[in-house]
Amino acid sequence: MAAAILLSHSCNKRNLATLAKLSEHLAEPELAIHFHVYHDCEVLLEWYDAFAEPMTLSGKIPENKVREFAKILKMQITKESES
Fold first, then answer.
1. Which of 1, 4, 11, 66 is found 20 to 30 A from 47 (Cα to Cα)?
2. What pLDDT is attached to residue 81?
3. E strand map for the chain
4. Domain boundaries in the chain?
5. Predicted TM-score (pTM) above 0.85
6. Closest CA to 28 of 5, 10, 53
7. Distances (CA, A) of 39 to 29, 48, 70, 80, 81
8. Up-side HSE of residue 74: CA atoms within 13 Å toward CB?
9. Residue 3: which residues within 8 A CB-CB, separation 6 or more?
10. Quick one: pLDDT band at residue 33, thresholds 50, 70, 90?
11. Contact present, 74 and 55 (Cβ < 8 Å)
């Protein structure tokens, strides 16, 4: 069984720029399998099996920001039904 490595980093310009640079030269599974973004202990983004499965965003993020984000990543938006 392969060993899992958990890395936790602050989300700042420098770290995001480094991640973007790495993504230019690595296949998606080499970059990360799961992405999670938190703000004040609240989950803003969950992306299990990143690059293969849908990304889940917090409903607290304004829809216009979600649309901008999806456009940058060339992803489609699908809303979950509220039950």
1. 1
2. 67
3. 35-39, 42-47, 56-57
4. 33-83
5. no
6. 53
7. 25, 18, 20, 22, 24
8. 1
9. none
10. confident
11. no
